[in-house]
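User: I've been trying to design a sequence by hand for this structure and keep getting stuck. Would you show me what you'd pick, starting by listing the structure so we're on the same page?

Assistant: Good idea, let's start from the same input. This is the structure you sent:
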């Protein structure tokens, strides 16, 4: 009897195992149309928005698709909808494959619509769709989002998801655009203590743009020529309470990324006025941030006082004046130049946040919380109001670890 019972249990186990390995709910890769980028614009129809979908063909560039495929790597559609969640149903009336939001990399919103008070109400729908991941990015385009995707024609990347992945990752690493994930957007918006930065993009170049320093541009202002795509990722759009209120150029965005210890910035290249040529020339430095900032605040005084120490490692990359950096005097001069330049850039940025933006675009308020025993005391302090009148000083702590190869001037 025991042997029979054991056999019955074994048969039941094998039967259940066979049922669990069924594939009736499988989904083939080629059955889906994956939305890689989504654009949101104003619509001429009341109560609706204009939705643009950048769809990627998963077979192009894959082993399954083969090298001789004649299918397009992407498809773009634009139409009016009540919201972009239910818009999947409308899109399936045009696209043969099942629309999926699982691989969305970026949401692009036109600058015009980002300044609309109703933007947050519309965009909050992303929290209700389980397919949309909060590590997707939010970007603001100078032109309409539909035009941004239509004019975007990468020359080196056939697959659109790779293009946006490279552009965003490299832009964040060198500090010219912010790390504007959806998670950061909603976390910042609902916390209501600071502003949020979204990356600023454009596929339209300005006419006769002014030549500036390498990091002082906004998207569309870099006057590059050759066989290239006109799309540019540089600068940021500033949001307060879910509405766009201003912009920061590449230098100001990079300043935020250095001040914010939660960003993934690694090392950046900067040009500074050369102190050995009466500031007529520029010399390049590499800036590395390996330690967190030290922030001290005096919240008990009549006026909030903030002192920020920013530890940075510096590598001298060029020497246009051919100065001998083996001399201690020259080392002190260049160190002072770098320190003063970074201090002025940072303090000028903070002044802009107090006068124009009415708020700081990174979680500086987190450092103020530790000075209060209870949440009620912190709320009574009123960070937003106190920050606008704060006395802020930035102290760059510079360590130059490499002065570069010492070149010799050839004999004439």
């Amino acid at each position: 009897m025991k042997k029979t019972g054991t056999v019955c249990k074994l048969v039941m186990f094998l039967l259940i195992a066979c049922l669990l390995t069924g594939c009736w709910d499988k989904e083939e890769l080629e059955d889906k149309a994956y939305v890689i980028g989504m654009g949101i614009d104003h619509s001429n129809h009341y109560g609706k928005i204009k939705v643009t979908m950048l769809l990627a063909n998963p077979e192009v560039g894959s082993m399954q698709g083969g090298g001789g495929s004649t299918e397009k790597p992407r498809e773009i559609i634009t139409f009016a909808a009540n919201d972009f969640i239910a818009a999947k149903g409308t899109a399936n009336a045009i696209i043969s494959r099942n629309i999926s939001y699982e691989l969305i990399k970026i949401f692009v919103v036109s600058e015009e619509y980002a300044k609309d008070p109703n933007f947050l109400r519309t965009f909050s729908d992303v929290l209700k769709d389980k397919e949309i991941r909060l590590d997707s990015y939010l970007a603001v385009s100078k032109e309409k989002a539909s035009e941004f995707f239509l004019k975007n024609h990468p020359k080196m990347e056939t697959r659109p998801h790779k293009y946006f992945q490279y552009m965003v990752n490299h832009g964040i690493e060198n500090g010219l655009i912010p790390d504007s994930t959806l998670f950061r957007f909603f976390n910042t918006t609902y916390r209501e203590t600071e502003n949020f930065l979204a990356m600023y993009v454009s596929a339209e170049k300005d006419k006769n743009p002014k030549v500036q320093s390498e990091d002082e541009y906004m998207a569309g202002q870099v006057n590059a020529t050759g066989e290239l795509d006109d799309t540019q990722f540089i600068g940021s759009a500033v949001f307060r309470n879910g509405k766009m209120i201003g912009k920061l150029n590449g230098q100001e965005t990079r300043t935020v990324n250095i001040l914010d210890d939660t960003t993934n910035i690694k090392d950046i290249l900067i040009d500074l006025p050369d102190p050995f040529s009466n500031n007529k020339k520029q010399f390049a430095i590499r800036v590395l941030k390996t330690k967190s900032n030290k922030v001290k605040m005096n919240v008990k005084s009549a006026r909030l006082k903030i002192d920020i120490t920013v530890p940075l490692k510096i590598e001298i990359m060029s020497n246009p004046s051919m100065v001998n950096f083996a001399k201690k005097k020259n080392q002190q001069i260049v160190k002072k130049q770098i320190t003063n330049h970074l201090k002025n850039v940072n303090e000028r940025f903070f002044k802009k946040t107090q006068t124009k933006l009415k708020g700081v675009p990174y979680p500086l308020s987190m450092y103020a919380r530790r000075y209060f025993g209870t949440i009620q005391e912190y709320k009574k302090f009123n960070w937003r109001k106190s920050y606008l009148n704060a006395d802020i000083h930035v102290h760059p702590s510079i360590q130059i670890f490499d002065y570069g190869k010492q070149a010799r001037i050839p004999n004439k």
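That's my pick for every position. To get oriented when you compare it with your attempt: Residues 328-355 form the longest helix (28 residues). The chain has a mean pLDDT of 85.
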